[in-house]
Write a structure and sequence with these properties.
This protein is an alpha+beta fold. It has 7 helices and 4 strands. It has helices spanning 3-17, 43-46, 53-65, 83-91, 103-108, 113-121, 137-149; strands spanning 25-29, 35-40, 74-79, 96-101. Strands 2-1-3-4 form a 4-stranded mixed β-sheet. The longest helix has 15 residues, at 3-17.
Length: 155
Amino acid sequence: MNEIMQKALERARQTMNANIGGPFGAAVIGEKGEILSVASNSVLRDNDPTAHAEVNAIRAACQKIGSYDLSGCVLYTTAYPCPMCLSAIIWANIKKVYFGCRPADAEHIGFRDDFIYRFIEDKCRDKSVMEIAELDRDECLTLFNEYQEMNKTIY
């Protein structure tokens, strides 16, 4: 078994057994092969639906290196990342991910990853899941234009 994946599994098992979160663990490895973070899902403890293992590992790694940019890093995770975590991985500029379980494996034990993937694939049209509608675009574009004129960092 891969040493880094083993660390993610051990962390997930520890917090899962403590009823902190589900069976999800993740680790971020730096460009030089150093472990930047090992984290697990803490949704139940934190009462935070975004406290997934991958997000927690990304947050900890970013704090450790003092940057939002994890270019050159690798992420190991016990399960294929959900859509939210995939987005966080992309925003962090991580280009390589190793995963253990598949989305269907998570669905099999009751998690909704595949459900969310299907909602996205259907272009978010199922109003029984969520209604999403544009509102006050012109006013919001003013804010965007102000940001662009300030030549701020794009991340």
